[in-house]
């Protein structure tokens, strides 16, 4: 399936995948308002086997087929991950 990917100029690292180039008719207006101006980033031929940097291709394909768009959100930074990893016992694990 062909898809077009757009970068939000307002929301850093937010990308909107669309089933048709420059067709935002299926995307909710409230979401478009939140994303602000969109900049065309690239076009892809998407298959379930294709590896994407942050998303599962099958999930994106399903969203494109069912609603015509998919939103890739920025990764959340887990600022406490290093601290939790250093704790003994492991954070959230039961001690026997």
Labels describing this entry:
single chain, 96 residues, alpha+beta, 3 helices
Please give a structural write-up:
The chain is an alpha+beta fold. The protein is built from three helices and four strands. It has helices spanning 29-35, 57-67, 81-86; strands at residues 2-8, 15-18, 38-45, 69-72. It has a four-stranded antiparallel β-sheet with strand order 3-1-2-4. The radius of gyration is 18 Å and the shape is globular. The mean pLDDT is 82.
Note the overall shape: globular
Task: Count every helix, treating DSSP H or I runs of 4 or more residues as helices.
Answer: 3
Instruction: Indicate the low-confidence ranges by residue numbers.
Output: none
Q: What percentage of amino acids are in beta strands?
A: 15-25%
Radius of gyration: 18 Å
Q: Structural class of the secondary structure composition?
A: alpha+beta
Q: How many angstroms does the end-to-end distance come to?
A: 51 Å
Count of individual beta strands: 4
Short structural description:
The protein has 96 residues and is an alpha+beta fold. The chain is 25% helix and 24% strand.
């Amino acid at each position: 399936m062909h898809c077009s990917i757009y970068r939000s100029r307002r929301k850093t690292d937010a990308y909107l995948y669309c089933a048709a180039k420059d067709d935002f008719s299926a995307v909710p207006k409230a979401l478009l308002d939140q994303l602000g101006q969109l900049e065309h980033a690239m076009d892809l031929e998407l298959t379930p086997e294709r590896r994407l940097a942050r998303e599962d291709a099958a999930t994106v394909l399903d969203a494109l087929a069912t609603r015509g768009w998919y939103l890739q959100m920025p990764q959340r930074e887990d600022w406490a991950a290093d601290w939790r990893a250093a704790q003994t016992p492991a954070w959230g694990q039961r001690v026997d």
